[in-house]
Amino acid sequence: MITFVGAGPGAADLITLRGQRLLQEADVVVYAGSLVNPDLLSLCRESCRVYNSAEMTLEEVMAVMEKGEDKGLRVVRLHTGDPCLYGAIKEQMDRLDEKGIAYEVCPGVSSFCGAAAALGAEYTLPGVSQSVVITRMAGRTPVPERESIRSFAAHRATMVIFLSAGMLPELSEELINGGYSPETPAAVVYKATWPEEKVLRCTVETLAETAREEGVRKTALIVVGEVLEGEYDRSKLYDPFFTTEFRQGKEMKQEPAGVRTEEGGTDE
Question: Does the pTM exceed 0.90?
Answer without folding.
Answer: no
